Amino acid sequence: MKNTVAILGATALVSLAYAAEQVHRPAPYRPFKGEYTIYSGDLDDQQAPTKEDRKLSFIIEGQPAKEIFNAMPPDDKQTCSGKKGARSRSKENVWCTFDPADGYTCYFGFDLKTGKSIAGGIC
Hints:
Elements: H1 2-23, E1 34-42, E2 45-47, E3 55-61, H2 63-71, E4 87-91, E5 94-99, E6 103-111, E7 117-118
Antiparallel strand pairs: 1-2, 1-3, 3-6, 4-5, 5-6, 6-7
């Protein structure tokens, strides 16, 4: 009986320590919803993925996209939409936009054959 109580107590302490560590992480992982596609060819002419050509494109919207957008200033000089109030920010192959009607959206991608970063959206 004493061994069982000791084991349960030790397990509880380890669990509490792990939970406390997660709460105090300076940059914790957070869940998000998004969309992705696996394709071949180019973004503007996507085809079904092939054995030789597989690319991955992600789209993230809403609050997570806003946080990414805000983390990568400054604004680009031009936007794709040209709408009043539209904004765009890009760094290498990460591109985020803000549209007053649609909110924040970010795009990025990877070539699954090489693992290299590629554009995930087009203007």
